[in-house]
Amino acid sequence: MYDGLSLSRHGIAVMAELDHYTDRTKVYRYADQTGGLHFFREPTGGQQLELSYDPRNPSRASARQPRYGQVVMALVAVVGVGMACGGLGLTGYQLFLALRGGCSPGANGLRETSRA
C-alpha cells in the first residue's frame, strides 16, 4: 500500500504491455527512461496496465489505482483497525472484570439452584 501511494506521487508513470501468463498471474513488461526492460506481476488487468516506477530503482513498481480505489482501500483499513482496537479493548475489559471478580457465579443476578 505504501509503494502504491508513494510511487503514484513521486514515480514515473508508464503503460506496461502484457508479456505472458503464469499459472496465477499476468506478467507485464515496461521500459524505464534508459530503455532497460523490467517485468511486473499482477493477477488482474487487461492487455495494458498503467504502472508507476521508482526512477532510482526502476524494478520497484506499483500498479496505479484510481482515486476511488485508494479511498475504498483507506476506508477498509480504517474499519479493520477500528475492529481490531475494539476487539482488543473488549478483551482487556473482560480480563479486567475476570481478575476483579466481577464474573463470579451470582454476579449477574441469577440464583444458583441445586438439584436433588
Provide a descriptive summary of the structure in words.
This protein has 116 residues and is of the alpha+beta class. The chain is built from two helices and five strands. A five-stranded antiparallel beta sheet has the order 3-2-1-4-5. A hairpin with a 5-residue loop joins strand 2 and strand 3. The protein is elongated.
Number of strands: 5
Mean pLDDT: 79
Fraction in helix: 25-40%
**Major sheet summary line:** 5 strands, antiparallel
Q: What general form does the structure show? A: elongated
Keywords:
2 helices, alpha+beta, 116 residues
In short:
37% of the residues lie in helices and 27% in strands. It has 116 residues and is α+β, with helices and mostly antiparallel strands.
Chain-wise SSE layout:
Blueprint: H1 2-10, E1 12-21, E2 26-31, E3 37-42, E4 48-53, E5 61-63, H2 67-100
Antiparallel strand pairs: 1-2, 1-4, 2-3, 4-5
